[in-house]
Fold Peptidase S41.
Amino acid sequence: MKIDKAYIPLLFFSCVAIGIVIGGLLNFPTSTASLSKNDYKSKLNKLINFIDNEYVDDVQTDSIVDLTVTNILANLDPHSVYVPSSEQVAVAESMKGDFVGIGVNFYTYNDTIAVIKPIANGPAERAGILEGDRILYADNFKLFGKEIKNEILYSKLKGEKDSEVTLTIYRKSEKRRFKIKVRRDVIPIKSVDVAIMLNKNTGYIKINRFAETTGQEFRKALSNLKIEGVNSLIIDLRENGGGFMEMAVEVADELLKDKELIVFTKNKKGNIDKTFATQKGDFETGKVAILIDENSASASEILAGAIQDNDRGLVFGRRSFGKGLVQREMNFDDGSAVRLTIARYYTPSGRSIQKPYVKGDSEEYYQESEDRFESGELYEKDKIKIADSLKFKTKKGRTVYGGGGITPDIFVPLEVAHGEESLEYILQTGIVGQFVFEQLDKNRDQYKGMSFLHFLTKIDSDLYVNSFEKFLAKSGLEMSLTKNKALVSRYITAEFSRQLFGEDEYYQIVLKEDKMIKKVLEKQ
């Protein structure tokens, strides 16, 4: 598969665990070795071997190779990268869409592994593990009271399918310690977070990345919404950093008519490869809206561009990241990998939405995203810098622009006040979940047996805002929440809903006052 991605977004409460050998290392005499003028390809091999054999001190040759390869790729484009084996394992599992483990969402709380929530129908839940349980031992390996590297921790909880691990659990609510056997199983890592109806006609699907299973997940989600009568669909690609180009194509194919162009790529030789929709689309006539933001990239931009250029629907939000480079991954025996840019992709109208970059200067490239805060374009559409020379036409003749991301048809600014942009992103990270877990942990029994509707009448999240501000300060994030109290309160309520009930309930709360959702519903 071609991999087209800017970065892999962090999975909320994920428990997923997350050297290159250049030819053969050549032997040569300990005397001075000569190098022919044009022997560039063997130069690096000979140098590494020379250091390995002759350098006065012991050196980790593999780390030198890693550094060398990283530096070589740094002189290309910002998305040609070397991925060490320690990182590649987690990325590969995330993009594969599943892993084998015990199935819990957790975090380290006071030097102890605390279970936030067992994955529904997973091994841990089937074995009887509950929210709030502490995992003290995996077999005889101690998991508390010391810092444990993630790769070691995950290796103790993950394993072969159907293998067993004996966990020592402390259940705070019962003040008891006991052992429990868990049989490991395949745990799905969803790329489609949720699919719900917002009203009797409008469905909502949230895609967090484009993994190997995204096409299948999307079709299942769409099928369920069709049963509920959906005729208007919102696809949320905010914070979606991309993934497999083929999966974006599969989703687009469900929405576009036969033979409509989805995307095309062009390689260094000028060869063009076009991808068209097929006859099999399951939602080719209903209304479609795509939600994007400044962190929507690559595969997300392929989907948004295809919908926009074919006039299939409108794009709402803020200008996307601007990543139009296609990578191919080359894996190595030690588990590491190189992702090399092999082509550029173009939207159906012919737009390259890759933002400008200078080879060897990735810092400036990524700084462009930071500059959007200062320029004001996250609050005002008129502040978006668009080159008139990069105008293109959609199928029906509407003007769209290339040269740096997908510019939305309907602009929607950030919800937070200018100068407090970081808060909006903080609210979507695990820190809100950690705060809510600690609040629940004080007296989890008060919510036992409570229905979701009853919970909504009881929760007063405004009371938690001041506590959350102190929690942020304790974590090193000093900020006032006064101007954004309603937004913070909404996310706290949503997170309580997630931990007590589930993802659907989380999104019911968080989307209720969402500005982009409101804008879409206004336009229908």
About this structure: The chain has 16 helices and 23 strands. The CA atoms of residues 52 and 61 lie 6 Å apart. The radius of gyration is 25 Å. The chain has a mean pLDDT of 87.
